[in-house]
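sorry for the late reply, my laptop died twice this morning and i had to redo everyting from scratch. anyway the thing you sent over, i finally got around to it. pasting the sequence first so we're on the same page, its 274 residues, then the predicted structure underneath. double check i copied it right bc i was rushing
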Amino acid sequence: MPQSPRNKQSSDIAGAIETETLGEVTYMHTEQTNEEFWAERDKRDQVVAERNRLEQDRMHAGLSEPFSAEVERELRKGATTLIYIPVSEVIARLNRVFGVLGWSSEIIKCERDALDPDCIVAHVRLKVSSSDWGGMIQKDGFGGQKIKRTKTGEIVDLGNEFKGAVSDALKKAAQQFGVALYLSRSDEALNQEIEREHAAHAPKIDPNILALWNKFREASKDFSAEQKTKLNEFWTKYSGGRPKPSPETATMQDIMALIEESTRISFPGSEFEG
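ok and here's the structure:
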């Protein structure tokens, strides 16, 4: 079996023409010493590494480039205006940088929230295949969409709300690659402002109701998805379809009923049942 070039003597290499394939690069050397051969290969490896680094920088710049004002959309939340990018523009950005076949998305979950059936929650996984980025990379995003209802309480378009939740989750996943990441700080600032505004205008809550509400939350905090569904079904039947309760809207009687039902769910067959 022939020896590798590193183990050959210079006299063995002199006058010979040999090729060696490393990855996608083929090296040809003639009349070189061992030291010259490996020095040249190291140099070429550095060139390949630099090329990959520059390609990564190019892709990152393409992903994180701010969108033009023409494609930005506005969403009013209270007294604040939020800027967002339509999912179609995010998809177009991914296609341009990674190529149409260079990325894919998978819907891990999309369903109505167990605690708030009027909210759709989605979990989307974004996968990118790139040799310049070290192979397959995936990022998970979570999004939500509030179900819109008519004045009579009927759902306007449930399918569209599921689509909106998936789109929101996909954008959150793409944001981790840098797509519209500059807008995320606007989201955080908006949420903080809404919380401050809500706290400033929130009605005073009866301390007795708040204490009872905390007992209810403690009794149901570790519920499984199945148990949460049972509790939601109970509330819908008990309240006649009223919105999800809160310390601001629930009465003492409401909370007592929720605590009692939580106990039934936690301890089937207890004295509270029947």
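The chain is about 45% helix and 20% strand.
thats about all i looked at so far, will dig more tmrw
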